[in-house]
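Internal QA ticket QA-208
Title: Verify multi-chain structure generation after dependency bump
Assignee: T.L.

Test input:
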Amino acid sequence: MATPRILEVRTRILKKNDETARAMRQRFDSLGLLVVNLVSSPGTGKTTFLLETLRRLRERGESVAAIVGDLETDNDARRLAESGAPVRQIMTHGLCHLEADMIERELVDWNLADFGYLFIENVGNLVCPTSWDLGEHLRLALLSVTEGEDKPLKYPGLFNTADVAAITKCDLAAACEFDRDLAVANIDSVRPGMTIFETSSKAGTGFDAWLDCLTSRRDALGLPA
Amino acid sequence: MLAVTLRIGRLSCVHEDALRYSFELVRDGTPLADASLTVTPVPVRIWCPACNTEQELPGIQRFACPVCKTRSGDIRAGRELEIESITLDLPAEEPTDGHAPHP
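Actual output:
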């Protein structure tokens, strides 16, 4: 006679991704390589922000690389390559976020010891990238002044998992009647105390503080063993 | 397999209706074909340093203690996306120690 048995499993559904991400993070740690995951909705200006970041880090003599995810086209990789940094494009062909094993595959023939910073520009999406750890040290959530101040309240999950935030396109703030204090308060509501960088990739404002943050985070990793 | 129980945190970005829809699509032809799905929602709990205790949040737009309003991003629950248990239809075993098998 058969009897129902309840087995306590207590297994994370994304366990495989989390394990891959953790192993990669350990590898990045041992190399002193700071890895940053950029998340935002489409059109926030992630690529322009990242291009400016890559350029400025290279001007400071840092060695940088980037991986960018999109559903289709390698347009963003070609734009980012203008910085002179090595860049790889992942085309997800419909998948709305990047996963740890996709990053792991891209890293196979890169000598990571050559780099101090690796940036991962996620697929533009404020929902799904939230749950997927890519092995990053720092998750940057971006919000542009053209999107509306309440985005953090509409998508609290994503802003809540971020470590730092950037408000982009600040040069357009007046034209958009952007309420800066309200946006900052909304970000702080879903992620109390999070550092927020107010930037304009066109005017070049806000990047010194952002780059200083990156440098100090990398210093905190220590030198490669 | 008779049943699967999942724990889904309010911050996991997983919607129960969408999950059920997908579950019904993918279970055909697998050992889960006749299994029921139970979802245990997990509300967000934060640590309130002022109250010195965990507090449950009524929503996810404001990470502040619902009692004393102190802001806190110290999340203690609500990100879960996990299989809590499965129920198997197993042949009964003879009790070996005088106790009935675990139900």
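Spot checks passed. Chain B touches chain A at residues 2, 6, 11-14, 60-64, 71-73, 75, 81-92, 101-103 (CB under 8 Å).
Status: verified.
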